[in-house]
Amino acid sequence: MSSTSEDPSGADVPGGEASSGYERARRALEEARASARAAGKSVGHGRASPIRRPRGSSSRRRWSGAGPDSRDPQPFGRLVGSLARDRGWEPQIAEGTLFGQWLQIVGPDIAAHAKPEALHDKVLHVQAESTAWATQLRYVQRQILAKIAAAVGDDIVTSLRISGPKAPSWQKGRRHVPGRGPRDTYG
Asked: Hey, what CATH class is 107-168 in?
């Protein structure tokens, strides 16, 4: 028995085993490379064979690898956040968050008795349901500001202007005459 056997294609295979199609293709490629090298051609630097570039090379690779890439899909929240940052929408988003999540920010006790009215020049105007609640909110103003800063960020609200309930207005209609008005209605 010899150490070579015959391949189904008719070629002798060293080692005595019949080769697969992969082995035949690999052997044909090696022979083609050897003949190209013998002819003085550069072998192994074609488009299909990646060239190893040193780190820090200025040329950028044109295919996506295993690591994260700027072309990879991004989470929606990150995209919206970067869009808001780029367009300068962060203060308006923070204001909307403050008004929309007032209950979660200050808690149910305060939210049941006070509501935010407006935000002008980093001053939040809060209206309490009674003068007693307005006084109580003034005592805990620092804690409320800390909760707001934790929820929407620093430098959005710097102070609070807390007011009690609005007094009833006796004005009727758009036109009004200045002065004390009628005084004989109260007896």
From this structure: alpha beta
